[in-house]
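Suppose a colleague, Dr. K., hands you the sequence of a protein chain of 173 amino acids and asks what its three-dimensional shape might be. Before reaching for any lab equipment, you can write down a predicted structure in token form. Begin with the sequence itself:
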Amino acid sequence: MHEDEDLEETDETEDTEDTEDLDEEEGDEEFDDDEDDGPSSVFVGMTLRRDNSDALFAAIKNVCRDLELTAFRAEPNQLSGRMPLHEVVQMLVDDANFAILDLTYDRPTLAHEIAICDREFASEFILQIAKEGAPTPPAAEGRLITTYRDAEDLRRIVQRQLNQMIDAWNEDE
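The predicted structure, expressed as tokens, is then:
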């Protein structure tokens, strides 16, 4: 189914206290660096080296950079056999706050990417996209998919959706 710091100077005592607090927190296994920070990264699942996939990924990366997010995807050198494919995907998803899955083309990892993202993210933190007119891969049947016409349309969709994801993230905190 398709649908359209200024930093203030502090005295030496304050610096020491802050450092001591950080040292204590770093030793605490339950301390989470990202707890006080906003979202910082986006996993992008997409077919590599097909049609204009590099241009589409560049459009997503540019939007992410404008929103102070880092977009990353599995790159060919990560998929060279040193680590099983499903482990590469899991590692990348584990490091992300949001996911964008391009479902335009079926690929060997697609069902696994969808399953991992469904397990790791709330549904509002996953954007599923596909090129207009593309057949829905079997692994994506019955899922809500936002379609795009070209790289510029994709850029607008990703910007709108990531802003909504960031707002939802901030509401949850």
